[in-house]
Amino acid sequence: MIVGQVGHVGQVRRVALASVVSGLSRTLWIVALLSVTVGAIQLVSVADEITIGKQAQLKVRKETPQVKDPAAQAYVTRIGRRLAAHAAAEQYPFSFSIANYREVNAFALPGGPVWVNRGAIQAAGTESELAGVLAHEIAHISQRHAAQQLSNAMVTTLGLNLLNALLGNAGGAAAANIAARYVASGAFLKFSRDDEQEADRVGVRIMTRAGWDPHGMIELMESIREQEKRDPSSVEIFFSNHPSPKDRLALLAHVVPSRRSGTRDSAEFQAIRAKLRTLPPARSMIKK
Ligand SMILES: [Zn+2]
Fold it and tell me: Fewest C-beta atoms under 10 Å: which of 32, 163, 275, 278?
């Protein structure tokens, strides 16, 4: 069952809409209401979100080369779990995996799985920069961005079928079908600009609470810019999925306090980074 309960719907919009669509049948009225207030409703329950994320994770695992080095894997998992423990969220089963790709990139699947590319770990100069990468992805999960995106897709594509689903009829199967298509398309990997900004704001909060210097997020943007100068092709995918470092730095200037606090770097991070350099070269995400 994919469809959860309908959340808050704005009272003012409801009244205005009622007068506009008073000529429509009750059924169409409800569908129109759902469509207009799409940002305000959440149709995907946390349990469904976790199930969808598990399906997506199976698919990603099959398609993605993974860094199998146990020390690197254990290290990233430990940093990720410490951050996730400070995310104000439902208890999602977070997991952290390293993709053996040379490009700078990271992404979050619904309900818990986080992936970071080997190229992103190597581009980060310090542990707090890596914490910044992971905290941003954890924030996408804790703020339920993918679930909201899926809700929006359901409302816009399902129409009357969605209504049936809400009323407990056969529409549930149609909703599940949309979720499956969504997983297959990889649409979870691209978030709106608002979601990206929220992930940076919430990410800064998470890393600060977890004890890392939030300046790491700013320094990460600077590292990515340097990486772009050295190797432009290695940041292309990252730039296509995220706002530009310039825009992100403008936002971070407002949310990161000027005074430094928290952990900046660790010998362990530098050791893991050095170890990754000794492994056979990472693969490329860009298909030739
Ligand atoms: Zn993001």
Answer: 278
Assign 159 to helix, strand or coil.
coil
Q: Are 117 and 103 in contact (CB under 8 A)?
A: yes
Q: pLDDT by residue (tens digit) across 242-257?
A: 899 999 999 999 999 9
In angstroms, the CA 16 to CA 183 distance is: 36
User: How far, in Å, is the centroid of ligand 1 from the Cα of 245?
Assistant: 12
Ligand 1 centroid to Cα of residue 135, in Å, is 10
Look up residue 121 and give its two tokens.
């770990």
Q: Residue 26 — φ and ψ, nearest 5°?
A: -60, -40
C-alpha to C-alpha distances, 63 to 73, 225, 285, nearest whole angstrom: 18, 28, 11
pLDDT, one tens digit per residue, over 5-44 is: 333 333 333 333 333 334 445 555 555 455 544 444 677 8
Expressed in angstroms and rounded, the spacing between residue 244 Cα and the centre of ligand 1 is: 11
C-beta separation of 199 from 144 below 8 A: no
Closest CA to 46 of 176, 144, 158: 144
Residue 244 has which token pair? 């530009």
Report helix, strand and coil shares of the chain as percent, to nearest 5: 65, 5, 30
Distance of CA 4 from the midpoint of ligand 1 (Å): 25
Q: Work out the average pLDDT over 130-134.
A: 98
Q: Express each pLDDT in 163-189 by its tens digit.
A: 565 656 555 566 667 777 777 776 666
